[in-house]
Amino acid sequence: MTRQRRANRVIFLAVAAGFVMLAVAAVAVVWSFMRSQDYSDLVSHTIEVEAAVGDLNRLNERVEVARRGYLLEGDPRFLQTFERTAAEIPLQIERIAGLTADNRSQVERLIRFRNVTQQYLTLVRNSIADKQAGGTGISGASLLDEEDIAVVQELRDISDAMAIEERRLLVVREAAASRSVYLSTVVAIAAAILLVVVAAGTIWATRRTLRALTTTGVQLQDLNDDLESAVAERTSELQRANAEIQRFAYIVSHDLRSPLVNVMGFTAELDAAIKPLNALIDKVEEVAPEIVSDETKYAVREDLPEAIGFIRTSTEKMDRLINAILRLSREGRRVLAPEAVDMNALVSGIVDSLQHRVDELGVTVETEPVPTVVSDRLAVEQIVSNLVENAIKYLKRDRPGRITIRGKKANGRVLVEVEDNGRGIDPKDHERIFDLFRRSGSQDQPGEGIGLAHVRALAYRLGGTITCESVLDQGAIFRLSLPTALAPQQGSNT
Questions:
Q1: 136, 303, 382, 482 from 459: Cα distances, Å
Q2: What 8-state DSSP symbol labels residue 399?
Q3: N or C: which end of the chain has fewer CB within 10 A?
Q4: In whole angstroms, how large is the CA radius of gyration of the chain?
């Protein structure tokens, strides 16, 4: 068994480790693909910057073409093209600035490009203004002077440097993206292999566990069959033993009654003999008082009546105990008769039967709905009646009595609760009060300590239980738990 548990633990740890590794692999796959996406975004960004630089170069070229056309032909349409293009150049520069804000070298180049562009546009506007003022009749061959050529060349050099930088970044980022894609592919393949391994291991472990469960199920079925046989045999033995105990209790109680009756009879005769004896002593005291001693008079008039009283009290108590044992014995031998019991009607009937006592003590009895049960009506009535009577009997006289009877269904059973605000029961006596001839607290109420023992015995016969929850001086709650339907075997008698 220890080896099997160890093997199961190893299998469990292996499968758990496989799933952990699979989770790690999944995270790695997601990470690698996110990295690939990042590199792809960088490549796209580089291409976008390079295209923006190309667009800026084309704008500068369009400016130069518009200037030349206007200077050569004087057509105002060339001037309109120049103004539109000149207005677009700063916007394009700002767009490139936003795209290259994370590249310091490109930022520096763009600052220089912006300044040179302003210088170039100033030169172009000066030449156009000169043409508009009448000019000096410059020729097409001399449209660009040395300063113009230097500025245009610087613009081209800066834009070429920016394009070269972006192409360099493009090469680097494309290579990184390729590596990332390769890494993602490797990680995905590894994750797939790991998934297959974990799945195979899980299937193997599951099949092994199912085989073990099948074997265990067969063994449990065999054990259950053996257990049912043992339980049936033990139940039969207990029923026979219980029947023997009940017969023994009946016989013993019956046999005890005969000598008890004799004792009670002789006690009555002794009590009757005291009267003529007292009369004789009274007469002797009148005739010859010196003959009767004080001890004799005290024995006849005090000791003997007191002794007879003690004997009578003891025999009456013993008679009650014998009657209670006989009643328990008869209840144990009575065949239970299951039927649908309307618990609300049953509780109402019990309260009505005790109404005189309830009114006398000023007790408030509250009842709440109680579910119907299929059980032995007489036994259930005896249980609930005993609990209600005890609640009335042990109320505290210094506060208004309150008793609540309620019920509910829970886990396929019916719970009946009888709650009071009486004197309560010490927690150490919660089980003791259900023992035969055992009582708790002050013994200022009549009883032999049989009622709750009888209640628990009846509850057991009905397939139920009864418990007590209480604190001294804070009342008590007795809970009766019964099956919703009494099982047939519980209603038979052997």
A1: 130, 47, 10, 8
A2: S
A3: N
A4: 55
260-295 pLDDT, tens digit each: 666 777 677 777 777 777 777 777 777 777 777 777
Residue 10 is predicted with a pLDDT of: 65
Q: What are phi and psi of 436, to 5 degrees?
A: -65, 135
Contacts of 56 (CB under 8 A, 6+ apart): 89, 92, 93, 96, 113, 159
Q: Nearest-CA neighbor of 96 among 159, 153, 152, 157?
A: 159
Q: How far apart (Å, rounded) are the C-alpha atoms in residues 32 and 38?
A: 10
Distance CA 349, CA 380 (A): 13
Residue of 171, 212, 243, 199 lying closest to 22 (CA atoms): 199
Q: Give the predicted TM-score (pTM) of the model.
A: 0.43
- 3-state secondary structure string, 439-473? CCCCCCCCCCCCHHHHHHHHHHHCCCEEEEEECCC
Return all residues near 75 (Cβ < 8 A) that are at least 6 apart: 69
Q: What is the structure's pLDDT at 139?
A: 42
What is the three-class DSSP state of 376? strand
pLDDT digits (tens, 9 = 90+) for 310-325: 787 777 766 666 666 6
Which among 64, 227, 84 is positioned nearest to 156, based on CA atoms?
64
What gap in Å lies between CA 119 and CA 217, rounded to an integer?
94
CATH 3.40.50.1240 for domain 335-491: no
The answer to whether residues 375 and 458 touch, using CB atoms and an 8 Å cutoff, is no
**Residue 173, class by beta-carbon neighbours within 10 Å (0-12 exposed, 13-18 middle, 19+ buried)?**
buried
Give dist(CA 213, CA 219) in Å, integer.
10
Concatenated DSSP letters of 9-50 = HHHHHHHHHHHHHHHHHHHHHHHHHHHHHHHHHHHHHHHHHH
Domain ranges in the chain are: 2-135+144-213, 240-332, 335-491
